[in-house]
Amino acid sequence: MKKVSYLILVALFVATAVSFAQEDLLVSDFDSGVKPSNIGGDFGAWDRDPMDFSQTAIESFSTSDTRDGKGFCLRLDYDVDSPNPAYNGFWMKLNGSDVSGYTNFVIWVKGDKDRGFSPLFKVEMKNNKGEIGKYYVTGITDQWQKIEVPLARVAGISDFTNLDEFVVVFEDWRCEVKEGTVYFDDVMFE
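The structure assignment produced for this chain is given below.
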């Protein structure tokens, strides 16, 4: 009888835990092909020095390279091939999202085989306390892949209860390919 009671108690605990499990937070799937993100945040490309025309980043939407064959994905054309220090990329507002209950920041990525691409970029996360966390993503290929950034390994940020922004950064001194195209889709927290 004790064993049956114990099993019933364990089953109730598991059922309760599953019912309270947090769903993934989809930040943006880009499927609409327009701003804002799924959580209402603005986004766009940015340049270290907009007056240096030898470096640039331009975002657009693509229907031909989507991950699942529907909607849009984000296309980012970057160029850090400049005689001056160069870095640029993409930013997205997170509108104070509390992601403290999540384990990973996820972003689907692929490089453009024809234009070329950097197999490495930096992800930064910023919170409302002014903390900036950094994590380097490596191993990008010309095939869609799910990149999981463990929040526990984002160096420099300790509070994930009120995230303001995430940023993708292409740095001239780290990019093997100084000019290229990278596609992004399905940005989320898991």
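Interim note for the steering committee: The two ends are 40 Å apart (CA to CA). The mean pLDDT is 88.
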